[in-house]
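Re: the multi-chain job from yesterday

Posting the exact lines I submitted so nobody has to dig through the queue logs.
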Amino acid sequence: MTIVVGYVSTKEGEAALERALEECRLRKNTLVVIHSDRGGSGLSGDAARKNDDDLKKVQARIADAGIEGEVRGLVRGKEPAEDLIDVAEETDADLIIIGLRRRTPVGKLILGSNAQRVLLDAPCAVLAVKAR
Amino acid sequence: MTIVVGYVSTKEGEAALERALEECRLRKNTLVVIHSDRGGSGLSGDAARKNDDDLKKVQARIADAGIEGEVRGLVRGKEPAEDLIDVAEETDADLIIIGLRRRTPVGKLILGSNAQRVLLDAPCAVLAVKAR
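And the result, structure tokens for all chains:
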């Protein structure tokens, strides 16, 4: 069984990764970490190098946790939701984990479009976590 | 630790309950099943009796599964999302589980307002499951 987690280097992304490591320990699952970037002219060389460094650190954390897993940095011009769903289908995932931003007291009542899309179109259950 | 699940007698509600029973077994958690009804003139005597019967069956399933848990039928004039979040806060829940409808091929891209509200305002992680 596989858990797919969407990772970005924010506190929500960290919360999702931490939870994914815990769930993999509990369920003895394999972890697939996805970092999705649309790429193109919006992605500078510096940003691409930082992404690579971040993902190497994630790889090291998976190894340190003694979990079987892999990290995929996807730059295919797709929305993060599409990349997550594609990989969940490909790996026949049991669970997708995503980080959600906490709503501020005056925050709007609408979830981001990527989160909604993952929730609606995922082939499996979706666990939504927030930063502590 | 407690898992709170929103139950309705639909295939999505059943999927949420089934998953909640599995997660309680895996995590050794206590289960709190919430059935929320706004009540008022929209709730007929027949419907209220059917709700009671459904919840007694759920109680029996929890007992059969050997899980510690309780069933609460809430009729407090609140939206299901409010009831779920209130109980999650009160029980210091570790996880809320909700059922989501599957999108049809021509389905709209917007999640229901109750699901969005639970996802945005839950004090803990939210697991969204679909019917098989």
